[in-house]
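The record is passed on directly below:
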Amino acid sequence: MSKPSFPAASILGYPRIGPNRELKKALEAHWARKTDEATLHAAALQLQKTNLSKLADLGLKPDDASLPGDFAYYDQVLDATLALSALPTRFADLADANGAIDTAASFVLARGDESRAPLEMTKWFDTNYHYLVPEIGETTPIKANATALVESFKAHAANGTTIRPTLVGPISYLLLAKAEDGAAAGFDPLTRIDEVVASYAQILAELAAAGAPWVQLDEPGLVTDRGAELAVPGELAETVYTKLAAATERPALLVTFGYGTAGEPTRPGATQGLLARAGIEAVHADLVRGTVPAAEFLGDLAGSTLVAGIVDSRNIWRNNLSASLNILKSLRTEVEKANGTLAVGTATSLQHVPHDVALEANLPAHLPEWLAFANQKVAEVITLAKGLAEGESAIAAQLSAAESAIAHRAGFAGTTVAAVRERLANLTTADFSRSDAQTRKEAQEAALALPPLPTTTIGSFPQTTEVRTARAAHKAGTLDDAGYEGFLKEEITRVVELQEKLGLDVLVHGEAERNDMVQYFAENFDGFSETENGWVQSYGSRATRPSILWGDVSRPAAFTVPWISYAASLTNKPLKGMLTGPVTILAWSFIRDDQPLAVSANQVALALRDEIADLQAAGISIIQVDEPALRELLPLRAADQPKYLGWSVDSFRLATAGAVDATQIHTHLCYSEFGEIIEAIDALDADVTSIEAARSRMEVTADLTSYGYSRGIGPGVYDIHSPRVPSTEEVAELIDIALGSLDPKALWINPDCGLKTRGYTETEASLANLVSAAVAARATLGVAV
């Protein structure tokens, strides 16, 4: 059957949170029962229309399927779960007679309720986006439910816009899934692939009947090592896409492979060729983190379109248009030899970058011309497509502007700072090591005298409306420095008193002065700048505002010491100094791409080392250096991981190795698969590591036990990413699981993560239950501990 041509310029997705976080506001108003479901749907539809209209204004055509239909209320993987009606047993009652689930009920999967924990959440490949992990067992229902996709397509079609419905591909969906509790030992969700593919075929048929000319299936799972095994001739990828391509009633298909090179990295383009031979009309290649397809595989296109993901959609630096155009022209020559066509696109969805540089009125004067947010990247895609079609002369002005900006950035003062480079050059092996762990443990036990199973929190306490209002007033100049300092001291005092009332053993100051655990540090380091509206979705309604690391990093003066010292003066209990680690600062910032990450990490580490020295001098004997993003930046291919783990561990050790033996160094990690990097976690050489474990019900303890992890460990017993309050019995059960495999002398009791996003009512109740469960567990251990 005749298929439509793929547009010459397109993007794989667009930020869905909204330029002013409209989706966040609509969701949270609905969850707070201030609006009904109809109002939520109306707000979401209006946001989508506004975004699509903006894309059309930028030059993407509203009638050729170049506009992505990738909106999700919470998460694109959750939407795939809903499209398959693949509900775990504990949520089965939420489905209607046909197995479908509505929007309101879907939020129970995402957020849990009084009696049920939500779906587990973990990082989406090597990004800071979190997805909800599907739970698939042998009998999990799998039945097509295309209603939401069809209704979305029709709603926009009625407005004159032809979107390209987007869905996580069937292979990636099952690769991202975990076995449902109760599944047989060793069960692999991928064994359900035939049923999933049959459901996808039905979904495609319904979208075709609704008039959709193109559908996008995202298969980033095929860029991983396991995915590579499935993307060779005769294996699963060929089987799946041959079946989908053979369907008589379906839209044309674009299959994307963002986040790296699909299939074997030594044979770039082989996966694209495989799917083109199977009959897929358009295949994508990530040319930013992946490799340009080799000419030998482009011959397999045979009339298909190769979408070249040449514009970086995960960082915010301006594209080198001249270099990109040269790559595209060379690639087009090979594609056309195969009677194929070349289109220009983004490397991944633009969901990982903010909306628009034009919304930033207060950036330093040198920065804006260096940057490209989502809207600027759309313009780059269109510019490159025009240059490819009409020649360099048609985009001469854009080429010149890009070249000038890149040269300005390279020569700008602050991009390279001699003193910072000299300090790095003078480092020795001794700068990366502390005394042995046993010597430190003895010194810390004598200094701290903590009880068995010590209780603590991860650092932040709820950022209330009052805290945010005071910060905004101070920033706006309507609250002077003295008034703001007085407010913060009152808030810190309240937090310390609450922790003492609850009976926690190691206290924190609550971080009321911090807007964000990375931005706060960026504001106090040279080499960084902050945005006002650079919001990027992290999960659900949560968005972060990554700082921009553009130059060499140093710390002009101590900045955490005054607040932490003040808090410590209010209590006789130990109080932790709270810092964010070098890898996490990099991972949750937009980082410079003109030098190795290891260099930037060590620059940040030295700035933190100076802060740790000042905290020690102020009498702070426990210092936590959070690294929740350690696993996040792990390369997707095993062959690339040792190099990353080497420099990331070294940067943490460089930051902390100046601590004396009696100073207890903590770190914290959350929402990742930690078993894969347990050796690196051990190599951090922290005295105590707190780690997410509640949603997965202590899965990580098996990895810790198997590895023989011997230092302090605090597997989280309270899931702070859900508003529900865990009962004392729930917490006690998790503590019992941990005690069943971990040394009680090493075990700490703490939440999964910081409490910034929670309210005080649920926080106080949850922490009271945590302390009660810990005290009860402590009593059962006896004096032997």
